[in-house]
Amino acid sequence: MTKIQKLLVANRGEIALRIMRTAREMGIRTVAIFSEADRQSLHVRYADEAVCVGPAPSSESYLRADVIIDVCRQTGADAIHPGYGFLSENAGFARAVRNAGLIFVGPSPESIEVMGSKLAAKAAVASYNIPMVPGTPEAITDRDDAKKTAARIGYPILIKASAGGGGKGMRIVEQEADFDEGMNRAVSEATSAFGDGSVFIEKYVTSPRHVEIQVLGDQHGNIIHLFERECSVQRRHQKVVEEAPSSVLTPEIRAEMGRCAVEVARACGYYGAGTVEFIVDDQLNFYFLEMNTRLQVEHPVTEQITGIDLVKQMIFIAEGKPLAIKQEDLEINGHAIEIRVYAEDPANNFLPDVGTLETYVRPQGNGIRVDDGFEQGMAIPIYYDPMIAKLVTTGATRAEAIEKMIRAIDEYRITGVQTTLPFCRFVMQHDAFRSGQFDTHFVNRYFTPDKLLPATHAEETQLAGVLAAWLFQTSKPKSGPGAVVVDQQRSKWRERRLG
Ligand code: MV4
């Protein structure tokens, strides 16, 4: 067992802050890395030390494995937490960290490698009796064989890229006549996106829910699950709303899915925090799809209902401590919902709208958690994901969490950029969401821009924002010159995008 003394967080924004907060509580010193675009960021100011690792583009800064490992040498950091995105699921990085004599706060490079390939993942769990969607267990090499398989399992089928992610290289094929075209497209998309054209076939589950199970494993073979997160409300494979628990699972199915998730983790000798992804059909049959070998964006909802700090557990595990939590000690307490607040315009096809947060006032009060990395007056860089914040509400019941979310959304004051807050409000007020009767098609099925708040109310909201900004300015005269400009300004991103 090695106690971590100084942790380098190889990430930025809200997740870097989130990780450093826990490190600080544990008496671990923190090192931030930052790009030239993030010099003024909160994660840089929060850390005990901060080192610039390069220019704004990720490929020249946050993705520079060699530079980051070098920063550990310079600063004496003995461990690296990768957060999510960037290098978090890069087996080569995890291995390089290990080879440099440092602790990688995450799973083994071998687990990352196996789970990074959907086909290798399926092969790894093959002997564990895990339910999987009918399909081909291996990469397709012979089209005629594949067509026979498709005919046997029945159309519609889904062609998936083994190296896939974010829906890339995925094609629905409705009938045999469309098979060849679907295959060509999937292979060429997979080849250009991942440099790996391996594809396989699955029966297409037409209206699935996305339910994932959080697991924690230690380096001594103990593995537990921390129940599920329901992530069905998504748009173009980007999650918008996540919650825990799922409103469709019975205690029996939950226990069964939890058991399967633990077996999946066991199949690849998993340690660290991981997420096992399932789809659930309308009959509540569930099927294992893949495993994510990182701390996920939506991890807070699990923390809220279990009372467990997942980052703290990740650090203990990385230090080699055995898990102190037993499966039977865990229970679900209440209900938590997370919305992702993006600098995107829901009235304009969710076009990224990065600019300056002219007004930025967070909601507050009982049951509200805001994980963010911004302050009023800060610019949202064009180089990275445009997520401003994660807003999480926790209530005794799902209905309470929803009401709290609506109140929190209405209290949130953001001007200077368009955000997905009005869209999230639409979701919270929709009968399908409120009743729990929804699937992954929710957004496509129900959302059109005219469903956003009527203009009059939007104006009121904006006026309130101006007032809040004005109040803020009068109390803090140094915070900015002249009158607050709301919204007229075209963001840098738009200028680039729209010319
Ligand atoms: C599926 C599916 C239906 N049937 N597999 C999309 C991303 C990847 N993680 C898995 N995905 C899907 N796999 C079969 N056999 C539907 C999806 C899917 C989906 C899954 C979860 C959340 C949102 C989704 C949106 C569209 C499609």
UniProtKB/TrEMBL annotation:
UniProt xrefs under InterPro entries: ATP-grasp, BC-like_N, Biotin_carboxylase_complex, Biotin_carboxylation_dom, Biotin_COase_C, CPAse_ATP-bd, PreATP-grasp_dom_sf, Rudment_hybrid_motif
Residue intervals of the ATP-grasp domain: 122-319
Signal peptide: none
Alphabetized Gene3D superfamilies for the sequence: ATP-grasp fold, B domain
Record keywords: ATP-binding, Biotin, Ligase, Magnesium, Metal-binding, Nucleotide-binding
Domain Biotin carboxylation: 3-448
Compositional bias ranges of the Basic and acidic residues kind: 489-499
Superkingdom in the source lineage: Bacteria
Start and end residues of each stretch annotated as Disordered: 477-499
MF annotations from Gene Ontology: ATP binding; ligase activity; metal ion binding
Name the UniProt record assigns to this protein: Acetyl-CoA carboxylase biotin carboxylase subunit
